[in-house]
Amino acid sequence: MAAMQPAGAGTTPRRRLDKSHYLYIAVIVAVVAGVIVGLAAPATGVALKPLGSGFVDLIRMMISPVIFCTIVLGIGSIAKAATVGRVGGLALLYFLVMSTFALVIGLVVGNVLHPGEGLTVTTTYEAEGEGSSLVDFVLSIIPTTLVSPLTGESVLQTLFVALLVGFAIQQLGARGKPALEAVRLIQSIVFRVLTMILWVAPVGAFGAIAAVVGETGWGAVVQLGTLMLGFYVTCILFIVLVLGTVLKLVSGVNIFLLMKYLAREYLLIVSTSSSEAALPRLIAKMEHLGVSKPVVGITVPTGYSFNLDGTAIYLTMASLFIASAMGTPLSVPEQVGMLAFMIIASKGAAGVTGAGLATLAGGLQTYRPDLVDGVGIIVGIDRFMSEARALTNFTGNAVATVVIGTWTKEIDRERVNQVLAGGIPFDETAVDPAHGGAAEEDAVAGPPADSADGSSDGAADGPAGREGSSREKVSETAAV
Fold this sequence. Notes:
mainly alpha; 21 helices; 70% helix
């Protein structure tokens, strides 16, 4: 009987666009408009450069707080993972190796493609004095006070203080938990401010693209397209060749079968431009695949902060592009130094759209302050590369879970084969809210009309938001 049918039966719920989708569309329109203005009226395009510079200054303002919070909380995550024995140790070692490998691949591809070469983007930066010696450089890392780096421009000082504070909180044990929660709250505020800043990204992208195209003509469009294409190809090759090889050699699993199994999650990530939206579902699917709950509970949440392969590739390729576009390519020692910085500072950069930009600006501010203004050049295409970053990060964490499960013998190999062959399908109707049932619908369709805060950018809360709560839940499950 019709009365017995559930509400909405026979109809397809209409997916609503949330605020992040409107921002995405606005950035696309701004980039196209900037290209048109730059080509049609070069002088006007160049005159619009302050719009891009202003946006970069806003991003630069967020460098120190973003890095401080992510590093302090990251060290706390290491402590939690290390306390659960060999699973946590293997996971952290694997994440460190793979992230470093991804950074190196980004540098190699960037040096082969030379994206940005031939552009002559000008900068207003003026060097302050002559180069310092190694001793002076090391001494400059020590700040005047413990809190002065948060109000200064030295990213290395911020990193140094963050490491000290993180390890100090770690040594306090249970007494340090309130401090860690305080930093987590501050991080939520910082990321919320960063989210607000991103709403002026269309204005910044318009001014930056118009100025670059006005100065260099079609050359800028071609070089930006080369960077995007090179980045996408690099991510694909990394997933298929690197991750696929590791997965096959260690677990005997075909990477394409695993990706087919996670197809619904990939669609969710593309629709939200964030891998965090699929975090609860990845936990559920890895458990269904046959990996033990303790391994999944440790590997997946920790990987979301420490296994950022796509972000690592983006940071290195973008750095090389900016340096070449501004006519001052990075030397090999500078590339190595920036590589070391990115290995540490990139942890947690995937939590928020825009944190990658802040980390990129932080790396440039540390080794080549004259290149920070160049961040404005890629503001317009950063959104186009966010999906590739998120998909690569997500795939890397799925592969890591299977690999760690195999190494620790906490995986049912027969069940894995049956699930990937379609013999044991994943029951979508049985997914509870804790595993992304309601979360997925909210992430794709936006918040309900009667939402308490009216917010639809929950994914932008980063590790302090939905991921943070999920991480605590699975950590407690793993401990049991």
